[in-house]
Structures are given as structure tokens and as C-alpha cells.
Amino acid sequence: MRTHHLAAIDLGASSGRVMLATFTRQDPQPAATLTLKEIHRFPNNLIRVDGHETWDLDALEKHILEGLNRLDASGVQLDGIGIDTWGVDYVLLDEQGQRVGLPVAYRDNRTEGVMARMEQQFGRENLYQKTGIQFMPFNTLYQLRALSEQQPEIVRKAAHMLMIPDYFLYRLTGKMNWEYTNASTTQMLNLATGDWDEDLLKLAGVPRRWLQKPTQPGNSPGVWKSPRGRSVPVFSVATHDTASAVVAAPLTSSRSAYLSSGTWSLMGIESPKAFNHAQALHDNITNEGGINGSYRVLKNIMGLWLFQRVCRELNIQDLPSLITLAKHVTPFTYLINPNEDCFINPPSMVDAIRDACRQAGDPVPESPAELARCIFDSLAMLYRKITLQLADLQGSPLEDIHIVGGGSQNQFLNQLCADICQVSVSAGPVEASTLGNIGCQLMALNAVKDNAEFRRIVATNFEQHHYIPRIHADFAIHWRRFQALCHVNEELAV
């Protein structure tokens, strides 16, 4: 019998956690057990500094070390540590490895208008041909262009640029690394070479010396020295949390889709090839890096962020009760396009939703239950739209959708997804990004053969719930309403 103890540091846009995984394989039997234990969970909130929305990296680092130190003090002998976080955000360091400038968050408004100017300058088609990445106003490419235009003195001081998970790996080990899956979210990687695109770096005002060629998940750049003197390898896993979540998603066939549901919803397919042709550009599909040369062909959806913000604004603590009330609101009365820019970080999400309904000439949701129903119905409608786009891309209909992540606990939304997309839905595991982080470590240690084997282990050890699609009366009418709403917004965006 061989047992591995591994730590996963999993940082989301609203919370973080340090988790302990215990993996045991019985020899010569192929059966394997995998368990997770939460060691430390903590909030991750934006803080406003000098007029910008920023991340409190020092607080996050303290929480990371608190979790790891608890494990060290408990006597657990770790075989590895992995870090995954959200994408697109970065940290600049000087020659001495000290931070330069603020760790500005993607929800900051400094990039307003930048994407449109860069598209006009370089060409939308050229940008997409090079990168295959979805156009979103907060992509790293546009953040860096905004920085070079607004604060050139910071660009002159900086010597290195690290994505957020690579920064924390550096803080634990003293070693710099540029991991591929997170680097692919920047819209600065060349799709053909897997390396930084020189033309786009110049367009953003980024010196090439800041960056080295991205590495594939699975290497260990350095070790963490624990307070007890242990040297623990720190693995560069699939450091983008969605990439890790996909590693753990128990996909059953090439026609399965995943939906990583949380603050963001990321919906897509796993593909051996990228899609950067005209139709993919029209649908604004993204081709982010996966493990073993795969691509995560997906759409970024402004997911439960809308619901979280509404609940925060209205000081609603009992979310299950609100979801229950939302079930009894007449379906499809209120519809919005959740991916409109106005929902990225409005002063009031409640007002933003009501204004969007009012501008569309639709009824306006007033009660918390009506607002929640608006969000859930609209998200499920968007899931259907993307389901159809993905089916067109791969040339065959999707057979099922696997919902993973914290949002997979929302049974009402899961059933709506099945009903509106008209495919079977499986929900779970909840801690998918943590599990994918662990899976990458196990594969790096040769404890698990490949991703297919790891997914079988996940499916065996973690519960899933299944949802069968039902038919909604008058759905076709409401679907046409939603399509028209999205079409108007897309025409405005172009």
C-alpha cells in the first residue's frame, strides 16, 4: 500500500482554501481511495487602493502559510504542494523580486475602452487568429496596455511579470515559473507556438525580458522549506482554476461538456485542436490551454457573481430559502444577457439588472426572489446558447453536461440547465479545482497514470447527482426573446 499526502492551495475570486488530499492505492489491486480535508478556508475580497480595485496579496499569502504551517505542525509529511487561482491577473516584480505597482484586479475600470482601441489598431481577426482567446475587456493584454499608457514609470521599474499562481509559487520557493494554462488566459500567447507573441507584447507595451516561455503543468520548480525543516516539492499544476477543474471533471465521452460553476461559469469541451476560424470568432469562443496538449474550448460566463452581489447588497444570508422562493416565480418573466459589460462590477447589481430589463422593455424584477429567478433563468438560457455553439463547432450534438465546482450545489439551477439545454446533467464534484490540482500532482509523481485514470478515481470517490431534462411550456417563445436580446447586445459590441 502506498499513501500520498498532498496540499492544494485553491484561490478563487471570492474565497481561498488550503486542502489536504490523501491518496491511497492498494497493491496489487487497482482500487484507489482519494479523500479531501479542509485545513484552512478564508475570504478573498477586493480592496480599493489609490482609486483601483486590487487584491490583498499579503493577506492571501498569510492565509496560505497559515494553512501549510498547520499541516506541518500536525506532523503530516507532504509529498507535494500545488497552487491554482483565477486567470488574467498578474504581478510585476523588480530585479530584487519585490513587487512593483499595485496588484490591480480584473474588475477594475482602468481598461474601459482599451479593447476597442486595440482591436481597431491591430484588427479583431488578427488578434483572434494569433491567440484564439475570447474578447473580454479585462484580459491581461488590455490590462497591460492600460498600465503602459497610464503608468509608464511602473513599466520602466519592472523586471518580471508573473501570473498570480506563479507569484505565490515564487513566494514559497524563490523560483520563477510561467505556467501554460494560466498564461493562455492573457490573450498574449501565440496559439501555434505556445509562446508569448512578440507582436502582441509590443502592442501591450510589455518588454520581452519580463517573461520566459511557459512550461507545461507537472514540473516542480522548487521546494517549500517548512518551519519543521522539511523540503516539500511545489508543483506547477494546471494553475488556472478552470484548467484544474476540467482535469477533475468526470467527462464520459468526447461529446461531453463541462460547466465549471462558481463566481464565474466556464462552459466548454475538451479538444485536441483549437478552433480559431470565422465562426468561432463570431461566437467569441476561447481556446485556453489544458493539460497534455489539449485545449479548453469554452465560453466565459458571468456566473453566480450576479447572484452573490445581489445577496450581498440586500444582506441576504439564507440562500437556500431565497432559491426556494425563486422556484415559485413565473419562469422566464425576466431575462437579461448575463455577459453584458454592465454586470462586470456595477455600483449596484440590483440596479444594473433592473435597468437592463427596463431597457429591453421587459417587466422589472422587484423582490429578491424575482431578481434571483431572473439570474437563474438567464444563466440557463445562456448555457443553452453556448451548448448549441459548441455542438456546431465539434459537428455533433452534446450528449451530456458535467457541472462541477461550488455552483454544482445549486440543484435548482442544475435542473434548469438540464431542462433548457435539453441534455442530461451530472453535478459534482464540488471541489473540482482542488481535485484537479491534486490530480496534476499525482500524475507528476507517477502515482496516477493519466487524466483518464484520475477521472475514474474522482467518479468513484466523489458523489454526483443526475438531472433528466423536462419540457417547459411556451419555452420556444421565451427562447426567441433571449436570442433577440443577445443579438442586440452582440451587434452593439461589434
Please provide a written account of the structure.
By secondary structure, the chain is α+β, with helices and mostly antiparallel strands. It is built from 18 helices and 18 strands. The strands form four sheets. Strands 14-15-13-12-16-17-18 form a seven-stranded mixed β-sheet, sandwiched between helices. The longest helix has 27 residues, at about 370-395. The protein starts with a strand and ends with a helix. The relative contact order is 0.12. The model has no long low-confidence stretch (mean pLDDT about 95).
Structural class: alpha+beta
Shape type: globular
Strand order of the largest sheet: 14-15-13-12-16-17-18
How many helices? The count is 18
Largest sheet: 7 strands, mixed
Rg on CA atoms, Å: 22 Å
Given as residue ranges, the uncertain stretches (5+ residues, pLDDT < 50) are: none
- Strand-residue fraction? 15-25%
Report the helical percentage. 25-40%
From the N-terminal CA to the C-terminal CA, the straight-line distance is 59 Å
Count all strands and give the number: 18
Integer average pLDDT: 96
